[in-house]
Amino acid sequence: MSLLDDCDFPAPGTPVTLAVSGGPDSLGLLLLAQDAGLRVTVHHVDHHARATSTDDAHFVVQVARRGGVECIVHDVPVSTGANFEARARAARRRALPKGALTGHTMDDVAETVLLNMLRGAGLEGLSPMVGDVTKPLRGLRRRTLHDFVAASGLVARVDETNASPLFRRNRVRHDLVPVMNDVAGRDVVPLLVRQAGVLFDVGVWLEDVAGADHEVSLGEADCRVLSTWPRARLTRWLRLRLATATSEGETYPPSLEEIERVLRVVRGEVSACELSGGRRLSRRAQRLTLD
Predict the structure, then answer these.
(1) Is 1.20.59 the CATH number for 212-290?
(2) CA distances from 215 to 48, 89, 221, 237 (A)
(3) 3-184 is classed in which CATH architecture?
(4) Which of 82, 220, 225, 263 has the most neighbouring CB atoms within 10 Å?
(5) pLDDT for 74-123, tens place per residue?
């Protein structure tokens, strides 16, 4: 069976942009996209955060040239230090064309589920990448993809930071998942991915059920009406209305503790509460105001 059977590429002849770092996942993406008959343009983002990053860029350019593919290199320096992964991710998003395909595999989906679970994420965080057309390899296992690249004769670049315990994803990949496999007595990656799919379907259904709620803005809602809503409905509506965006472009809903404080305001038990980011939610004449 061809690996393409487990991929989610568009129809042959479709023009696509690929994010290619030079590692085995993104090289596999490039090879499979060409096998799928797509019209490929490669984009490589050089953060200049490692001594070998420029070598990675040269390597990707050479691989693309040998494959008859255009390659565009983006020089986007990101300084090392706190929150590097999030800052680098945000810089890549800004540099890459919208809709660029990435080499995330089934293992990446499972790891992201666990990372989001450790962060205390809600339904959306526990069903990442499901149905995401920019992640066409999410049905492939990482090991299978790496073997495919090795069999092609390409020697992928190695990012030494992928082994560093300083990054939480690496701890999840190298420590947590193996322990979970041992405890479960089975490979938990497919299990986590199936769970993500189930939760994604639940989320789609909830969006359909709560569609009219999206039309109600924070300032328009009457607290007397909100107080009659089931807790799950009201909590979901508040999480969406009170979400905040980080400087890295990532969106986070309020914490459960913050939601509890907001619920007291809605019910009229207190007149106001403090929220993250220096915000203050108050209730005046049965209406909510966020300052």
Answers:
(1) yes
(2) 44, 31, 10, 10
(3) 3-Layer(aba) Sandwich (3.40)
(4) 263
(5) 998 887 777 777 788 888 888 999 999 999 999 999 999 999 999 888 88
